[in-house]
Amino acid sequence: MTVIVVANPKGGVGKSTLSTNLAGYFAAQGEWVALADLDRQQSSHAWLDLRPATLPAIESWQVDLDNPAKPPKGLEHAVIDTPAGLHGNRLQAIIELADKVIVPLQPSMFDILATQDFLNRLAKEKAVRKGAIQVGVVGMRVDARTRSAEQLQRFVEGLELPVLGYLRDTQNYVQLAAHGLTLWDVAKSRVEKDLDQWQSIIGWMDGKPADK
């Protein structure tokens, strides 16, 4: 079983978008996956309520922030969507559950600065340094050809963490989420550009090394 934590203490960076689409990918592969939502707003779990019963199933996993427990036995994947402002002992407890941590980050200097301490802390975690927990960054709402993307790449390289990929700014995610859908629940031709951008992220999830 693999536990993926999607985390960034800053709000509005795309954690729920990443979490729901990750869970949707695993479900589309026929794997048993559960989605945990630690945010008080419960956006990801509300999204699950919208998901048509005819689509590949994604289970809801309830996690107590003050006493987190391992996922139910038999799960192949668990995705944890974390809230803004998560820090201290609660953050530490969630990170200890993880096999992989994905940090969504927008390529503005304000977002980078707001996330810098968190990424520094992750990079220094003993389990990360020893490779027991893998950490990667995903650039959100960004064109990989822009200076902003280059700026993000340089910043993350300094931490020796890989950029797993860049997801463009598109209404596809918004429109699909409104119906409980992911990229893998609609015709490929409708979201082909977005699926292409996910290939490097999926490769890393499947154990392929990411470029640093």
Automatic annotation (TrEMBL):
Domain CobQ/CobB/MinD/ParA nucleotide binding residues, every copy: 4-182
Classification via InterPro entries: CobQ/CobB/MinD/ParA_Nub-bd_dom, DNA_Partitioning_ATPase, P-loop_NTPase
Alphabetical list of Pfam families matching this protein: CbiA
Protein name: AAA family ATPase
Organism for this UniProt entry: Paraburkholderia acidiphila
